[in-house]
Amino acid sequence: VAKKTAGPSNAEAPPKAGGDTTPMRFLDEDGKLLVSSPPLPDARVVELYRHMVRARRFDARLLKLQRQGRIGTFAPCFGQEAAQIGSISACEKTDWFVPSFRELGCALYRGASMRGVLLYAMGLEEGSVGPPESRDLPISIPVGGQSSHAVGLAWAMKMKKEKAGAIVYFGDGATSEGVVHESMNFAAVLKLGVVFFCQNNQWAISTPRRQQATDKPLAGRAEALGFSGVQVDGNDVLAVNAVVGVAMERAREGKGPTFVEAITYRRGVHTTADDPRVYRSEDEEKSWEKKDPLDRCRKYLEKRGAWDAKKEAALEAAIDEEMTKEIQAAEDYRASGVNPLEMFDYVYVQMPPYLLAQRQEAEEAFRGRAIVLGASAPYKPGGAAAVGQLEEAPEEKAS
Amino acid sequence: VSAANPNSLTMVDALNRALAEEMERDERVMCLGEDVGVDGGVFRVTRDLQKKFGKDRVVDTPLAEHCIVGASVGLAIGGMRPVCEMQFSGFMNFAYGQIQPHMSRFLGRTRGGRRMPVVVRAPSGGGIRALEHHCESEEMSYVSVPGLVVLMPSGPRTAYGLLKAAIRSEEPVIFFEPKSIYRAFREEVPVDGDPFPIGKAEIVREGTDLTVVTWGAMVRRSKEAADRVTKETGASIEIVDLLTLKPMDPEVVMTSVAKTGRCVVVHEAPRTGGFAGEIFARICERDDVFMSLRAPLARVASYDVPYPLFARENAYLPDIERIAGQFQKTLAT
Description:
By secondary structure, chain A is of the alpha/beta class.
């Protein structure tokens, strides 16, 4: 795949991941273009950059809201914006987007509203629903399982003779799951248009990449199953876009699957319930700060005269305004009287009588009670299970 | 198919007919699984379907239960109606990672947006002198999952009607096929017949002294046990075939137990955590039914031990002696 893409596939030694292939990259860490001509027009790169900034700024705001007890646990995408925006921007609306649980950037790019993201993070299913005609799947939490959904979706496209593929997101940890291997093999044997997009962010909660698998590239697994795997610098939005562009085109053309390993770094916490200080060093985090995907893209655009501080400030102000409005909308919705009984309504397409009876029983039990969490006051995400909770808890008094 | 009557079918042939008719009726229906194509399935339920409908619609997949069900989830979202086969329910555990977290919950996760018209077929139950893991009765692993429909036919006629209903259903269905009766007897099965309604139990024998609630292969065995007891004692025994384990039809059971005042549940799965417990709880929760009881509730189930290798399987499974013995005991109270 890399060889068919414009530009060199080995412009520079791989960052850190090791292995015997060289991740493709177009931009070095200072935003210097490593190929003779820009792979995308400046206007398009500005667009991608705007999406990256929007994802990062909203991600950071979500973290604050979580710390304030206004939303629950979520998995930030901090540091992985280029991998996400670079890849999803190479997909058509007719291609299926199959996320895991960290793809905030992709979801926003595909048109998810901030309000929806907030509602989901407030523990309301209302937030995980896209427009019915969309080809976006909701967040999938069991690690790796969604890879098989992408297989089925690409399969359905093949059955219907539609020129559409499926991109599935997962991390380095997920490559250890049997189902990811099963899905790769299915896609290979049945020649299905799946792009297996692995964000190798170096950490699966506390388990480092080197303990997840040997230092052979994760992308190399595709080779064993009979299809192409390629490593790309996941912090280079141009390179990711180019590699996934080729892979998605192959998917749509019925040429089978591709595995793309984007080498990146989870700069933040695994989820808001995680504390990386327990398992990794500040030095390591700092070393990746220098490779930050947003800095790199901004420097590139500045060098080309397509971006400046004034534009940056205006973008940030616009995002802030949008966030304020959307947060208000989400909090208003929650305060407006969310109906707890709706949990009964989508278990089956046709509600069986026993469930209707339980719904009526619950209606009686909930009468006059404020039972929806967060509707009237902040709460502590994690409750009494939160790490550190026991240390903070007062002794129980014998009565 | 017997030469004399082309509609007198074994359960295997009835299932095959249901699949063929539904594939004919709706081109979105596909069959996928291990050895379902050329081989026609290890029990031949999908025999000749690949010849009729082609390799695109009857697909021999790689050997991976998790991905077979996961791909079916994706196929359903993509607009197909997959019927996937687990070669034996004892290997279905690998697919649980899709069935419980995804197949059963996609509708709710998307608030009605993504339906799951998937059927997972699985030969289940014992009594076929097979290797380890080939005789499990695991319905409770699925009955306890909200969002699933769990069906178990008891013979050719119900297998045909229920499978048709399962394929046409908009809900995800776990379809257990009691393999010990795959070829045990024939029944009249129509051509292009109607689906059998999901969520409806059937009274297969009417009676006034005792209600027997059972399903799957135990329906036939319970009938045989009832024959013996009726012959010996003259007792009038009513037998309810549940057919749908989830959502269960409680009214047929409740009405019957209120009438007879006695209830024995017979199932192949191990006793602890078995579905008899749920049926008893429902009886106890209903004031009118509970107050009508004239004898303690009783169950005949397999013992709480792993399914033994086949030399001991007759000692493990409820047999006519144990079933008839319990009927007599309950009738004597």
